């Protein structure tokens, strides 16, 4: 078993780390406080290939592998989770679905624009009445009598990058009454009539990652913007979420690593009772557990990325590995940031240090793209074969 990274993987990791530390980290607290969307940084990340790491070069991406994506995501998230959220949606939820199920024209038009940073993408599955119960959707898409377009009506909620997205992958009911089998996927141009954005949501964390509700009122979507076949939407959505969970696991790892490294420095520098607090057994116990959890989550995430890469050759699934990585990495991020604040004491609770931001940002990794409870359900069903 080879645990080393190849030159391309190390290169994208280095590029992402340098940009994250020089351009993102210095302004992360400012963007967190203002909630402003970091558009200039995102556009530059697109030009560097970070918005389409696994996207082939002919569609404007870096043409790299899933492990490269994990390594780059970790570096960006370690500087600021909000930037990594935008990066994750563009890479995993938007580009991945169109690359897998889209036509050549759709890839050229929509993937290229997002991968290069020219535009921002989003993914619209959740509705006000449905979170984990994703198939319980009310948004309807009805084909016109002449067959040229679908008329879409309905609302979607908690849409990451919704306030700024130019293109959105949308899931809507085309055949009511048959549950998930009646869901279809569409590519939406938000500049067309009938698309409306709600207010930007005030969030606990990842505050520079804009989120809002969106509404469709007699929106006309051309039939050529149907993604895949009619009735394939829910299958597309779940497959895309498998890839997305690897991205969120990577994000959680970046947050956890930043908190861990800050704690190591603090434990060496901060003195109490005449010695560094890192010399106390209680602190050492926490640090040892933090390191073990961090490395275990890292290995699960890399395994999920490797499995995704391997099954791409056969068309298989990697959902179990992705759910395990996402579950462990997100709960590790929450645990490590909690312990990091405890070790920092009062300073950890202060906005003068980034620990409280890491703590707030970590929480969302246990919720979006499938809660920890949903991940446990997915894993258990895969293991038992029972539904």
UniProtKB/TrEMBL annotation:
- Keyword Oxidoreductase among UniProt keywords: yes
List, for all copies, the residue spans of the domain called Acyl-CoA dehydrogenase/oxidase N-terminal.
7-118
Do the record's keywords include Chaperone?
no
Extract the InterPro entries matched here. Answer: Acyl-CoA_DH_CS, Acyl-CoA_Oxase/DH_mid-dom, Acyl-CoA_Oxase/DH_mid-dom_sf, AcylCo_DH-like_C, AcylCo_DH/oxidase_C, AcylCoA_DH/ox_N, AcylCoA_DH/ox_N_sf, AcylCoA_DH/oxidase_NM_dom_sf
Q: Which cofactor does it need?
A: FAD
Q: Where is the Acyl-CoA dehydrogenase/oxidase C-terminal domain?
A: 231-382
Kindly state which reaction or reactions the protein catalyses.
3-sulfinopropanoyl-CoA + H2O = propanoyl-CoA + sulfite + H(+)
Domain annotation Acyl-CoA oxidase/dehydrogenase middle: ranges: 122-218
What family name appears in the similarity comment? Belongs to the acyl-CoA dehydrogenase family.
- Record-given protein name: 3-sulfinopropanoyl-CoA desulfinase
């Amino acid at each position: 078993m080879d645990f080393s990274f190849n030159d391309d993987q190390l290169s994208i990791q280095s590029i992402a780390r340098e940009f994250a530390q020089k351009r993102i980290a210095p302004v992360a607290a400012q963007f967190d406080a203002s909630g402003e969307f970091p558009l200039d940084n995102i556009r530059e990340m697109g030009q560097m290939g970070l918005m389409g790491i696994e996207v082939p070069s002919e569609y404007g991406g870096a043409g790299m592998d899933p492990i490269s994506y994990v390594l780059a995501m970790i570096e960006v998230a370690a500087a600021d989770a909000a930037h990594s959220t935008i990066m994750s949606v563009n890479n995993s939820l938007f580009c991945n679905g169109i690359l897998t199920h889209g036509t050549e024209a759709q890839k050229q038009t929509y993937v290229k624009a997002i991968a290069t940073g020219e535009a921002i993408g989003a993914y619209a599955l959740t509705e006000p009445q449905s979170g984990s119960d994703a198939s319980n959707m009310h948004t309807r898409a009805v084909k016109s009598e002449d067959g040229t377009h679908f008329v879409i009506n309905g609302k979607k909620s908690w849409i990451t990058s919704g306030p700024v997205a130019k293109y959105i992958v949308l899931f809507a009911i085309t055949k009511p009454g048959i549950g998930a089998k009646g869901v279809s996927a569409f590519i939406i141009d938000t500049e067309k009539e009938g698309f409306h954005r709600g207010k930007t949501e005030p969030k606990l964390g990842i505050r520079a990652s804009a989120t809002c509700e969106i509404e469709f009122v007699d929106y006309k979507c051309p039939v050529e913007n149907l993604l895949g076949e009619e009735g394939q939407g829910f299958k597309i959505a779940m497959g895309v979420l498998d890839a997305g969970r690897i991205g969120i696991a990577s994000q959680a790892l970046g947050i956890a690593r930043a908190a861990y490294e800050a704690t190591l420095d603090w434990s060496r520098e901060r003195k109490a009772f005449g010695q560094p607090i890192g010399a106390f057994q209680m602190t050492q116990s926490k640090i040892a557990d933090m390191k073990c959890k961090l490395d275990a989550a890292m290995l699960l995430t890399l395994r999920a990325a490797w499995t995704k890469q391997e099954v791409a050759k056969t068309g298989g699934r990697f959902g179990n590995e992705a759910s395990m990585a996402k579950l462990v990495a997100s709960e590790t991020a929450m645990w490590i940031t909690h312990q990091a604040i405890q070790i920092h004491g009062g300073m950890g609770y202060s906005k003068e240090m980034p620990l409280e931001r890491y703590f707030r940002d970590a929480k969302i990794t246990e919720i979006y793209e499938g809660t920890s409870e949903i991940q446990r359900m997915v894993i258990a069903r895969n293991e038992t074969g029972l539904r």
